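Appendix B. Chain record.
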Amino acid sequence: MDHVSSGIRNLVISVPTEQLAADLGDLPEGVELVVWPMDADAPRDRFDMVVPPYMSMARVLERLNGIDVGLVQGQSIGYDGVADILPDGLPFANAASVHETSTAELAVALTLTAQRHLDAFAVDTAAGQWAPVFAESLADRRVLLLGYGGVGKAVAARLEPFEVELTAVASRAREEDGVAVHGIDELPELLPRAEIVILTLPGGEATRGMVDDAFLSALPDGALVVNVGRGTLVDTDALVGHVRRGRIRAALDVTDPEPLPEGHPLWGLPGVLISPHVGGASTAMRPRIAKLVRTQIQRLAAGEPPLNVVLGG
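Structure tokens predicted for this chain:
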């Protein structure tokens, strides 16, 4: 499908679905919109912007080899590993502003579910069993928020009405928007007090295995680890060991490996709740990705630099 609508200079834009094309609405004049799922060779030899399909870039970016592309606009916030598969010379923008709200929503939902035993109640419901418990609250808990970027700030905003004692930690200490953010070098002093740890950090070598045996050992008995960042943040073997001993609980939207293979020790492990990497997979995504892509098109049409360029800019 080609779509032309109202602006300044001719642009050729590729999006992966008819749905996203429709969600974009009216575009500047001279914009040619091509729906290309990237499941076959490119229908053009030049694009001003290509939006690859969601969650499958690793399988399709090679189709951009030999194509003149002005910008590759991803649909995820995370971009670890993209540099290894992105054809040389192509600028890449991530989807900052799209998934923060939905991911933060899930982080709070996972935390509440684990604290209030909602996962167990769901099983009881299916079995027709009435089994009340006296549970841990979220209120008054000491929450360590590891990562204070877009997702971390969105989590912090949603935790505020829950009356928690929140400690934010990032790569460096700073004061931001009136919040005292601790540096990651302070973790040894902070972990022993943390009843809940929420991970929102990106993946990559700098953060790989950060939550290791020493990290988990520093937490008090019964602490809950919630991960909505990347699975590689956590040493999975160390986590399994601590959960098996009843030391630590976990609520994970991301895992390492991912997806978890059949028979993995995390499956069915008491004290572990897993959601299948769905932080951004909600109805909040559609209007937000459309807004970002539309903004990028408008900026390109006006000769302005695109937003969120994280590689090759």
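Further analysis of this model is presented in Appendix C.
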